[in-house]
Amino acid sequence: MKLSRDARRQTKELFELAMVDGRLDADRLGRIATEITERKPRSYVQMLKFLTRLAGMSDGDRTLLDSTTVLFGSGIGDANTHKNSDLPIILAGGGYRHGEFRQLPASGPGKVPLCNLFVDIAQRMGLETASFGTSTGRFS
Question: Whose CA is closest to 69, among 107, 120, 5, 18?
Answer without folding.
Answer: 120
